[in-house]
Amino acid sequence: MSFDLILPFLRPIEPLLLDDSISEIMGNPDSSWWYERDGIMRRDESISFDAGRLRTGLEVVANRLGKKLDEDNPVLNAQLPDGSRLAAVIPPVARPAPALVIRKFSSRKYTVEDLISRGTLTRPLAEFLAEQIRSGKTLLISGGTGTGKTTLLNILGQAIPEHERIVIIEDTSELSHPEAECSCRRMPDRYLQGIRLLRRSFEVCFAVASRPHHPRRSARHGGPHFA
Questions:
Q1: For residue 24, how far is the Cα from the chain centroid?
Q2: In the chain, where does DSSP find H-type helix?
Q3: Residue 9, Cβ neighbours under 10 Å: how many?
Q4: What is the CATH number of domain 112-219?
Q5: Segments making up each domain of the chain, as ranges
Q6: CB neighbour class for 158 (10 Å; exposed up to 12, middle 13-18, buried from 19)
Q7: Which CATH number is associated with domain 7-103?
Q8: With DSSP H G I counted as helix, E B as strand and the rest as coil, what are the percentages for the chain, rounded to 5?
Q9: 185 three-class SS
Q10: b/e map 78-102, b = 16+ CB within 10 Å
């Protein structure tokens, strides 16, 4: 993965960005920095990042990504060129300093055998889920951040028959179905003074209008949505 776009503005956390064993980086408003490695959260006491310098860096990064981060737009959700996700909030949403989360994108493509070998799925359960997909059943996959919802969705997508048409609706492009003909729809960011308005009713209607052959899988991200 490459962080060339953001590295010049986030130098104090460069070691965390360049460490491939780290999957997530978190900077808190109290100026503490944490990272996740192998599913375990750890604090990095060595990082010192001035709040003013961090805010300036985030504003420049937002600009480079074609977005705004200021007092009128204090929330940033963006996808980096390599697929990693960056989320940041600045005062007045976060006080006294900005907060930042970077979820690194893994280029590794997991298979169902990987999940079985790791103990995430049993073989009977994996076969049962694949059969539900092949028979056109609707599945809802729910879980906390970093629990593997997208990984499981991508793996289940391998069970979709090749003749099926797929419509993907997601805020950040993460799902991949290279062997199927995909019709991808991404809703643009909608922010109004820090309040995100997600018109889910429109998105559902749009999905129906796009005529996928079967409603198959869904993953829920985030908190309450407002139509």
A1: 11
A2: 14-18, 51-64, 112-117, 123-134, 149-156, 200-209
A3: 15
A4: 3.40.50.300
A5: 7-103, 112-219
A6: middle
A7: 3.30.450.90
A8: 30, 20, 50
A9: strand
A10: bbbeebbbbebbbeeebeebbbbbb
- Predicted pLDDT at 140: 87
Do 96 and 51 touch, CB atoms closer than 8 A? yes
**Confidence check: pLDDT of 199 > 90:** no
Q: Write the CA distances from 178 to 45, 111, 114, 160, integer angstroms.
A: 42, 14, 19, 12
User: Between 74 and 208, where is the model more confident?
Assistant: 74
CA distance 198 to 179: 30
d(CA 10, CA 59): 11
DSSP state string for 53-77: HHHHHHHHHHHHTT---SSSS-EEE
User: Quick check: 105 pLDDT over 90?
Assistant: no
Residue 69 burial class via C-beta count within 10 angstroms: exposed 0-12, middle 13-18, buried 19 and up: buried
pLDDT at 46 over 90: yes
DSSP 213: S
Which pTM was predicted? 0.65
Q: Is 41 helix (H, G, I), strand (E, B) or coil?
A: strand
Task: Tell me which amino acid residue 57 is.
Answer: G
Question: In terms of residues, how long is the chain?
Answer: 227
Q: How many CB atoms lie within 10 A of CB 151?
A: 17
DSSP state of 129: H
Q: What is the largest CA-CA distance in the chain?
A: 55
